[in-house]
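Schema walkthrough. Field components (list of strings):
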Amino acid sequence: MKCIYCMIDKPASKFIKREHVIPQCFGVFPNDNLVLHKTVCDDCNQYFGDNIELYMGRDSFEGFARVKFGIKPKKQLKSRRRIKNKINQGEHKGVIVTEEKVGEDGQIKIQKVPQVGFFSGIEQEYFYFEMGQIPTKDNLISKGFLLKNEIVWIIGDENEYKLLVKELEEKGIPLKNDVALTKDDTNGLSVLVESSITIDRTIMRGLCKIALNYLASQVSNQFVLSENFDPVRNFIRYGNGKSDDFLIVNQPPILHEDQFLEKFGAKVTRGHLIVLSWAKNALISKLSLFNELTYKINLCSGYKGIWMPIKFGHHFDLDKKEVTKLLSVSKALLI
Ligand SMILES: [Zn+2]
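Field assembly_structure (string):
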């Protein structure tokens, strides 16, 4: 048995874990037939879980979207690099928050993360830095922050406060009396939150993995093992190569009806869509998780070998927890 990612021959005892085409952090589908057996070795499965899926589920645009669907992560990451949510208005402007869950009123509940706020003399407003990411005193001063005559805000509970004070001291920022501790809430208040989300190589590799997994599930392991897929395989497993060669973000929606209905603010599906098809001698997948952003993934360009018809599509319905095959994907790929 050969793993489709590391390409190493291993005994069956190294292929115990199942590989889900779409990671389970994006929903569990009880009768899901899109699970790979004896395809991805346990080492690769573990590697992906620890190094890619952890961040896809909690620190990506889709990780953010899953909160809206009530798929709450077991545990949030302590610090996220890819998603930054900031309150956009009012006296809490600039405060960094994390999304918790959707409340009964349909609004996303937020919580402040432990952080420290400094006043910028240039912008004339506060900027906040998360615990573990506080710049040094010199760095702050060189960027125009006023440390002497302005209040430094420390946001955190008692324990976090101690840790933040320690970090401030380490960064050369001594605390005097003009420090304000706050854990006052925006409870019940509705605030506008601005999110900035970075799709980095880790997330891109995870998205490409979904597409290559999908190809294996629809055609065969043998097909995926061909050298046509070495570049994308090495990008996914080892991070080699240029991400632009494999993934393009924000393509038009996969379904035509979607595009039509979107004008009226409605969406056909609450779920994930994936399609796979040839475009001349390239094999292209389009993927949309939570029907939000659409990605175009290039699994191979310049295919060499025996040609076979490939035209597949699946819909993962998050409401019904069902996976269904799309009957027609003929118009689906707008390449
Ligand atoms: Zn492997």
